[in-house]
Amino acid sequence: MLEHIQDRRLEKKRKRISIPEYAMALAHVASLRSEDPFRKVGAVAIDFDNRVIGTAYNGLAPGYDAGEEFWLDRDDRQKYMLHAEVNLCSLFTRGTVKLVACTTKPCTSCAQMLCAYGIKEIYYRDDYDQSEADKICRLYGMELRQLTHYPHIEYPEVEGGGEAED
Ligand SMILES: [Zn+2]
Fold first, then answer.
1. Ligand 1 geometric centre to CA of 52 (Å)
2. Distance from the CA of 42 to the center of ligand 1, in angstroms?
3. Which of 13, 32, 65, 87 counts the most CB atoms within 10 A of its CB?
């Protein structure tokens, strides 16, 4: 009987998406807000009570209005772009966030920053082969996992990802 109840509980649990899946779905939606025509990245922070602390995406500093020509030079614009993780970390203080989900694997610099903020788990959707995040996370004991299965919201007017760069 007890076994039966436990089975039913497990069944119920499976009908609910996990916290990382929830975070990645939100990160995907956040990425759609990015104005970067080449690569749209979204990120989400979850605290130790599984509450959403915030969402962010890559872009220019708030208040700066770039003209059309700004986006033409893909290489030149990169140094001005604030990565989604940078914008995300501006929303909380160190030690208050457990999990971060990013639509792209954090770059080396962002992996260092997430470490400095005391993040325990990082989930990413798209790989980024120029990143040293794997080594950084292994050394400092942070979990880094790819997660591609999550509730997708189809929105063809805006393309979410892009090919790896910078
Ligand atoms: Zn970065």
1. 21
2. 11
3. 87
C-alpha of residue 105 to centroid of ligand 1, in Å: 8
Helix (H, G, I), strand (E, B) or coil at 53: strand
Q: How far apart are CA 163 and CA 20, in angstroms?
A: 23
Give distance in angstroms: CA of 100 to centre of ligand 1: 13
Residues 111-134 as b/e (b if ≥16 CB within 10 A, e otherwise) read bebbbebebebbbbbbebeebebe
Strand segments (E) across the chain: 42-47, 52-57, 97-104, 121-126, 143-146
Dist. CA 121–CA 142, nearest whole Å: 6
Is the full-model pTM beyond 0.90?
no
Residues 114-139 pLDDT 10s: 999 999 999 999 999 999 999 999 99
